[in-house]
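Exercise 7. Given the components listed, write out the predicted structure of the assembled complex. Treat all entries as one system.
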Amino acid sequence: MLAALWSASWADANLSCMPATPLLDELRAALGGTAVLTDPDLLRMHQRDEADLCAAGTPLVVVRPRDTAGVVAVVRAAARHGVPVVPQGARTGLAGAANAVDGAVVLSTSAMDAILEIDPVSRLAVVQPGVVNATLAGAVRREGLYYPPDPGSWESSTIGGNVATNAGGMCCVKYGVTTEYVLGLEVVLATGEVLRTGRRTAKGVAGYDLTRLFVGSEGTLGIITEVTLALRPAPEESLTLVAVFDSTADAGTAVAGIAAQGLSPSLLELLDRTHLEAIEAYQPMGLRTDAEALLLAAADTGPRAAEDLARLEKICEAAGASEVYVATDAVEAAALLQARRLAHPAMEAFAARSYPEGNGGLVIDDVAVPRGALAALLDGVARIAAECDVPIGVVGHAGDGNMHPNIVVDRADPASLERGRRAFDEIMRLGLELGGTCTGEHGVGLLKREWLAREIGPVGVRVHHAIKAALDPDGLFNPGKVL
Amino acid sequence: MLAALWSASWADANLSCMPATPLLDELRAALGGTAVLTDPDLLRMHQRDEADLCAAGTPLVVVRPRDTAGVVAVVRAAARHGVPVVPQGARTGLAGAANAVDGAVVLSTSAMDAILEIDPVSRLAVVQPGVVNATLAGAVRREGLYYPPDPGSWESSTIGGNVATNAGGMCCVKYGVTTEYVLGLEVVLATGEVLRTGRRTAKGVAGYDLTRLFVGSEGTLGIITEVTLALRPAPEESLTLVAVFDSTADAGTAVAGIAAQGLSPSLLELLDRTHLEAIEAYQPMGLRTDAEALLLAAADTGPRAAEDLARLEKICEAAGASEVYVATDAVEAAALLQARRLAHPAMEAFAARSYPEGNGGLVIDDVAVPRGALAALLDGVARIAAECDVPIGVVGHAGDGNMHPNIVVDRADPASLERGRRAFDEIMRLGLELGGTCTGEHGVGLLKREWLAREIGPVGVRVHHAIKAALDPDGLFNPGKVL
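Answer.
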């Protein structure tokens, strides 16, 4: 099913010097020449996000408007010329949702990077879409506030991209994903009109929830030009533990036990042996590479944190942990978190080592199941790896039932690619069979379109098309994504 | 602006015995005769929700299907005959969203009242829409779980109605409103197709967020036939305090201080003197009727609750509270909560006493502003009450900035109605000027359509119509509501 996508995926089209066109002239007139990029190297740089093995075209131009009026001008010009618009943030996405299509206008929001307001009493921030997640998180922290969503890419990804993909992260097990924090949006529609959705209030039910319709729509319905975000009070310092398991299924059992006993850890992550080994090879951290799985948990419940951590420890031991280790200070806790954050680059490096000369590919998958089905998911992925004869490492947000089975393939070997593709499909199938979803936080983009259709069924697909047609009848925005 | 609505609103059309029609025959064949009600008294009973002064028509028939297949049969039959369908839960709404229109099929979900599943590990429940909020809350509490949304009507309102209106309540200041708990829906569309939205997982970003598009859409986009709800672990016992203020604005200042200091009370309610007096007259509770405002606050932070309550006490005193009283036990705390819960019936009784012979009308308004603007809202409402010369009591969810200014009018006196209408409009205008929304939790229904249009502007209105047209092109569902 995905064969066409996979086979065409890393053959970038040849880039050549683009001639001036009336559209380019209009864009330059509207934005100024420095915001309109046609240098082939820059076009190449803006072809794709971080999803491996997804098709990407060559844009006509990359534009970097500085404000909403600039975005309106770009959208209106592109619409006049019937040229599609592909919005991009920091291109850290993992589903190809930001990949260019041939001849498109890539609209980068990276120059719209102002924090417009932080209000500690109403606990909200108003930002342009190009603000980097870590920049915002730091700015609100200095006001005693907290913006929880922390995708793996948080040090480089933008709020606009986070909102467009409804990004998750490690804090989400307790604090929820991006959409829980989006109070309101400013969006440029395909007509060039500027729509304001939502509110600045804690509660509000005025009309349809357009805000959350745009959150996670991956740039297919409009261009986000401003975001109003709810903030929380800064959390307490957290205490952290590591539990070592000789079986991934036991780790899954521990996660189910933690949920069943009503605990709400502020972090509950799982790394399997493949990832532990990859991280140690990438940057030695003293991780137990003889373990089959490692659970990383934290509690930020203030005076109760030590008690909660003791309960977590007991549950892990009852589930069969061979060792449970409590971090003795914040430095040690930060090091454990850092190890978890290295999982993605470490696996990329592992794939590169496995198949040299740039042939090592990594398909970073993303599947979520109900918490009670986590052990079955982990068992199933191990079985699929064996049956399909491909290396698959598993890492992820165990407390949410949201795992990333990461598949290593040899791009130069069609048989390896075919085995990888089969494993990918089998994991998706397993996730749905377990009552799960084909994407917990990375989105649909190009990678999961077929599986989205399976998950939501023909009625769901029809309603998606009806909404897309209602908002973007000519298919101007990010064509080929999601649907 | 609202004059036509207000003047026509309590003149119920004459009811007469309805003749059998082909539509009624089809409905009886599909559902069985006992689920198809045409008795004039029953039709009259199903004309309206609890919103005063909103127009209501006379339905052709009230149907009470028992399952999704029954709902599909009703929708298909109504669509074939071009007869609108108005869904109803327990008719406790406060904006007229459930009011019948002449000749419509009223589809009551009250017979679809099964709790289908409670899963403590995945922390979710699956219910039919007719399950009463309190019934679900009790059932999950017995499993050590918690379903937070607690609208004032929670002992009689249904989950289907709560979802359709995105109901709020007192717990929301800490735990959020209904939409935060809706993981997925089953919805019957205007085509008669059955759409499943969302998921059973903690996280999920597969496709557009159709779930939250239907939440709060007040039955205008589809009929909700099943709801998958996220649950939380049961909270700790809470500690409660009451703070008495000689000025409502001081109480507002206290609320802003509580937010600014990063506290997250599990309850933060305000009652003004009008409500205190109304409650004491309705059911003597020993409330301080000489106070201008009373703040009711609770903390459920376990071992930290006493400390948090002490901080709340200090903030209230600094803001000028004349007395702060901490409930000494759970019984006393429950009594305070009960006093707050009586605010609505007590004000209804106050209105009835003010203008006897059934002429006392109460417009229960609903406005939300950013927390920092609460004091300005309270000041403004007092000014509007004086200027318009109508009694207005204010009660509500101060911690969310979501207040209910309740306007007492004499239905028999056009001048009183006109003054009430003017006060209503002035409050809406003030709320928007303060950066707020025309409805924090009661919804748009019939009561706020003009103000919704002002709040979201012409682009917002156009997008609403486009989405309505995409999902319900013939205007089958709940015509005249929201838009």
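Discussion: The mean pLDDT of chain A is 94. Chain A has three domains: 3-108, 115-233, 239-433.
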